[in-house]
Amino acid sequence: MLLDSIRQVNDIKNINEEDYDALAEEIRQFLIEKISVTGGHLGSNLGAVELTMALHLALNLPEDKIIWDVGHQSYTHKLLTGRRDGFETLRKYGGMSGFPKRKESNCDAFDTGHSSTSISAGLGLVKARDLKGEKHTVVSVIGDGSLTGGMAYEALNNAARLDTNFIIVLNDNNMSISENVGGVSKYLNNVRTADSYLGLRDGVYNTLKDMPKYGEQMVKFIRRAKNSFKQLVIPGMMFEDMGVTYLGPVDGHDIPRLTRVLQEAKRVKKAVIVHVLTQKGKGYAPAERHPARFHGAEPFEIETGLPSHPRTKANYTDIFSTVMTKLGQRDEKVVAITAAMPDGTGLKRFHNMYPDRFFDVGIAEEHAVTFAAGLAAGGMKPIVAVYSSFLQRAYDQILHDVCIQNLPVVFAIDRAGLVGSDGETHQGIFDLSYLSSIPNMHIMAPKNKWELSDMIKYAVDFGAPIAVRYPRGEAYDGLKDFRLPIEYGKSEWIYEEEDICLIAVGSMVKVAEQVRRELKERGYSCSLINARFVKPIDEEMLMEARAVHKLLVTMEENVASGGFGEKVREFLDRTGGGNMLAVTIPDEYVEHGNVELLKQEIGMDADSVVKRVITEYCAL
User: Fold this and answer.
1) Which one is predicted more confidently, 530 or 187?
2) CA dihedral defined by 547, 551, 552, 557, rounded to 10 degrees?
3) Average of pLDDT values for 197-209?
């Protein structure tokens, strides 16, 4: 196998050009086989195989630098830099990350995980290179989906001022996670299908090449000075108008041609965009047919593409999806907003049923929040459905545009807490901290699937900024008989005893149930409270609990700093003290791995909590 000869960086340069297609096929088969077992980002990686090979052929790593926007398309890059064995532990605890990591290889120039950042980072590396008098090449690879993020244009605006080489590869597959939307997507689609330009260009080049003596020279001259030619044929030429040289579009699966264009781009003494057309999921029929499903795939059967372990129970996203369709039917003022994730956030059904009240703004969380604020100011009831780790990108808009005006925007925060295999950039462990610091913000977390439904319904009619945060994965269906109506700022007593009182937030109620059972088996009397509200905290409940228990234990899937436990401790200290233990995620970034294993490692599983509680209680 050709892939066997790729053991370290730059080994690809020893492969004969006539074998490039065969190597690309081997890489695809390798990725399909490995990701079918481990899960991971399949579609984006299959689409970028030839592009990655061309980059490695045109560049000299690690001296030259590649910044992968988002980074979920970097698997082939990892293969070509000697990390083949790492795919056995891909996205597992202690194993290889699914994203670029500087600590993992000196060929990973910049850690990425969220979109629209690569041009800014690349521009910084270019400036550092020039200030140090170095000569290496810097390439930022960004997808057309990431170009819907405003940060990319802030960076392009500055890159246009360069008088030194900086290559931006636009990997255009007409997809982010779901199909792209908006004016940028429409513009790029026009470029992709500009047959008049492509046909005329190729026809002119071929004709000139056949001319004796001066043909080749004329082609080279036109290629160097073709800006005005393109302006005549392709309307707008957005990038050229910004001051960035544009090369393309180029077939992203033609390795020799890609390599030649990249070599040409290296000679441009300014920022240059190489527009590459690729197919997401290329080479694997199920991924080609269903690119959104194979963006982040669970383990699957290669023959069918179907999950190896299909879900049998609804997850929290499913519950949110159902309640949203019901709310849309009951109230015509209810509108839904997503930042390029209608499938991931559960809004696809709402979109199908109420298309006029559904808004996909692209990968633009900041715009999504201020857009929602405008909808609320106009008398609508906007619900922003977003992953926890992505919402933090819109902190300023939440504070400035929503909360200062006290506008009734609902934030449905999915993937809150530990999410597992995607690692540090995707763990939703900061939202309680950054949201609870904002005046006028209110925060709830459901203990089970029924309470999520109740909380979303409550939030829609709340009349002020409010967030409902819920975890990834199977929706808990325990404690069905405990379903008191939601009352502002009030928690829920589930079991009332003495000695120890567990006060759990959202997903940690399930863990607290297990902790309580084990404590009772060991002879301890133990109460359990479902906090429900993180902001405001239920001060009356805390006074009651302190009066009859020797130890209060708060439990939350959030970092310690700024979290629920910190607020409870502050209240207790301010009102007379009390013994308390805060079970939280440590104030650190949590790497990738199975969620249950991660909880064990950081001391948040039931057994670890029981040990900590008994130790604390016995020390009183």
Assistant:
1) 530
2) 180
3) 53
Sheet with 65-68, edge to edge strand ranges: 65-68, 138-143, 166-172, 271-277, 245-251
Q: 78, 282, 357, 365: which one is catalytic?
A: 365
pLDDT tens digits, 317-332:
999 999 999 999 999 9
Rounded to an integer, what distance in angstroms lies between the CA atom of residue 444 and that of residue 429?
15
Amino acid at 148: T
Tokens describing residue 545: 């609990």
Which pair of structure tokens corresponds to residue 388?
A: 């926890």
Token pair recorded at residue 551: 């130890």
Residue 217 banded pLDDT, cuts 50, 70, 90: low
Phi and psi at residue 335, to the nearest 5°: -130, 155
Give the active site residue among 280, 357, 469, 569. 280
What would the two tokens of residue 311 be?
């879900």
- Reading the block at residue 614, the tokens are 């008994």
Name 356's Cβ contacts closer than 8 Å, sequence gap at least 6.
none
Q: Is 282 a catalytic residue?
A: no
Segment 17-36 shows an average pLDDT of 95
Whose CA is closest to 224, among 281, 267, 256? 267
Contact criterion met (CB below 8 Å) for 409 and 465: yes
SS3 414: strand
Tokens of 454: 């109740």
Give the separation between CA 431 and CA 398, rounded to whole angstroms: 12
Query: pLDDT tens digits for 234-293?
Result: 433 788 888 899 998 899 999 999 999 999 999 999 999 999 999 999 999 999 998 888
- Whether the predicted pLDDT of 195 surpasses 50: no
365 is catalytic: yes
CA 195 remoteness from chain centre: 35
Beta bridge pairs of residue 443: 467, 535
Q: Which of 393, 415, 535, 546 is catalytic?
A: 393
Q: What is the pLDDT of residue 237?
A: 72
Token pair of 361 as six digits: 């703004």
Cross-strand partners of 617: none
Query: What pLDDT is stored for residue 206 in this prediction?
Result: 61
Query: DSSP label at 253?
Result: T
